[in-house]
């Protein structure tokens, strides 16, 4: 189980420094933000990988199988840490099947149904990221979607990992994990909230008060 994160360049840098993040994930909106200051996609991707030493999942433009394959080859020349993120379309999954057959890891995005998850597993995709909140916004049961995909994969011994995206809160994180996801893709604001709980805060405040009453040598490395 691992934490994959999305956010601004500054946010992914900050998260990577904790040692708790295992990968960085982008989408076109994220990349547009990264390049807003004038940097190219290529240069900013190289800078992020160099600074974090983490895998970088890059959503490809496509839209055809041929385009996806050419984009992957181009991005791999920048860094082998770049991993293609492809949509759960016929063309995207065809590209994923070819890439996986040639030992290139893939991440399938925009998964919104069990059927798409089934097709992704047929392509031997390494990981899928079902849309959680977006499916819920469409008045569908997002928790049931994750649970059904997990049940299907485990029934047949499918090795494809389930890592939901469009996860907007710590409650969403919990719901996804308990429904059978292998992990989640979260933005920095949710990452920061993973560590918060009122009981933890109350306990630390009580410990701090007790600490102030503890006798210590002046050399104790406290301040």
TrEMBL record:
<protein>
    <recommendedName>
        <fullName>Transaldolase</fullName>
    </recommendedName>
</protein>
<dbReference type="Pfam" id="PF00923">
    <property type="entry name" value="TAL_FSA"/>
</dbReference>
<dbReference type="InterPro" id="IPR013785">
    <property type="entry name" value="Aldolase_TIM"/>
</dbReference>
<dbReference type="InterPro" id="IPR001585">
    <property type="entry name" value="TAL/FSA"/>
</dbReference>
<dbReference type="GO" id="GO:0005975">
    <property type="term" value="P:carbohydrate metabolic process"/>
</dbReference>
<keyword id="KW-0704">Schiff base</keyword>
């Amino acid at each position: 189980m691992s934490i994959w994160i999305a956010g601004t360049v500054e946010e992914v840098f900050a998260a990577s420094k904790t040692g708790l993040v295992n990968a960085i994930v982008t989408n076109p909106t994220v990349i547009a933000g990264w390049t807003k200051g004038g940097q190219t996609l290529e240069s900013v991707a190289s800078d992020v990988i160099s600074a974090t030493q983490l895998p970088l999942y890059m959503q490809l433009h496509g839209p055809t199988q041929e385009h996806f394959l050419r984009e992957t080859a181009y991005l791999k020349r920048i860094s082998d840490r770049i991993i293609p993120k492809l949509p759960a379309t016929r063309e995207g999954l065809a590209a994923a099947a070819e890439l996986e057959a040639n030992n290139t890891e893939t991440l399938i995005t925009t998964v919104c149904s069990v059927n798409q998850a089934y097709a992704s597993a047929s392509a031997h995709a390494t990981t899928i990221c079902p849309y959680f909140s977006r499916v819920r916004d469409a008045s569908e049961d997002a928790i049931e979607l994750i649970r059904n995909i997990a049940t299907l994969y485990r029934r047949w011994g499918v090795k494809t990992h389930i890592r939901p995206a469009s996860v907007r809160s710590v409650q969403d994180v919990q719901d996804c994990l308990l429904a059978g996801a292998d992990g989640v893709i979260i933005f920095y604001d949710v990452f920061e909230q993973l560590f918060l709980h009122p009981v933890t805060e109350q306990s630390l405040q009580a410990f701090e008060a007790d600490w102030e009453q503890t006798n210590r040598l002046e050399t104790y490395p406290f301040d």
